[in-house]
Amino acid sequence: MRLEHRPPERPGIRVTRRGRLAILLGLLAATGAAVLVPILLNGGGETPPKPRRLVIPEGWRATQVYTAVDRELKLPAGSAKAAAAGAALDLPAEAKGNPEGFLFPATYPLTDGTTPAGLLGYMVRTANGQLAAPPIATQARSQGMTPYQTVTLASIIQAEADTPADMGKVARVVYNRLARSMPLQMDSTINYALNRTAVDTASRDTRIDSPFNTYERQGLPPTPIDSPGLAALRAAVAPTPGDWLFFVTVKPGDTRFSATYEEHQRHVTEFNKHRAAARTA
């Protein structure tokens, strides 16, 4: 999250979080959760087959979900992506048929009859169930946000927050910047545009021509950038009170939030010292 004063072309300078997607085990969704049905022993006393499950972690992009579905269903690469394009998924009109952000992270049961279209549809219905349930639905309305905007914001929170405890503060930074018509300047959206995960973002990266370049374009990106979990959705509609406009994860578990550019620059300097020490080590 650099500001208007662009630093020299140095890959070690960046102002948002850790630059990597958090990979957390997907939890069983409380609403519309995947339920594993026990298989009874037959009369011969044979051991039942082990239930098959697909775990979708929080923060995965749609491309990662497609790859996992193809692998677990033993289908040719590209099958799940093609199914998503052809299936009538229950997505908001704003999504324009793109399920990014709505493939809810959870544990899903698989059977011999599971199809990619059916599985992806189940993920989307699970996401819709979470968005429609209180308190997320009521708090989103109070913030004047549509479900699609909620998921888009939550996807940034999921990618940017170093810990669950930071999610509400990251959300507040986004709200504060939107209220001031400031570009969000999030590294996670740059990474999405470049189809990568990275810790360092160079100045040249912030000048790419992309609708996901939140350094040069104001407002939320045009689509979600990953599949946010329940904690990120909750943070998106109930941000932590505060006046922060900047943040940087100086080292794992230590994210500094600042209200002024000067304070933020001091934290960035400390971040660069840790990065330099890590490279030397």
Structure commentary:
With 281 residues, the protein is mainly α. It has 2 domains: 52-132, no CATH class; 149-280, no CATH class. The chain is 37% helix and 7% strand. It is built from 9 helices and 4 strands, in the order βααβααααααββα. It has a two-stranded antiparallel sheet with strand order 1-2. The protein has a two-stranded antiparallel ribbon with strand order 3-4. Helix 6 (167-179) runs parallel beside helix 8 (230-237). The chain starts with 51 loop residues before the first strand and ends with a helix. Residues 2-43 have low confidence and may be disordered.
Question: What value does the average pLDDT take?
Answer: 87
Order of helices and strands: EHHEHHHHHHEEH
Number of helices: 9
Radius of gyration: 20 Å
The number of E-state strands comes to 4
Oligomeric state: single chain
- Return the domain count: 2
Helix proportion of residues, in percent?
Answer: 25-40%
Q: What is the CA-CA span between the terminal residues?
A: 27 Å
Give the strand order of the largest sheet, numbering strands 1, 2, ... along the chain.
1-2
Largest sheet, in brief, is: 2 strands, antiparallel
The structural class is: mainly alpha
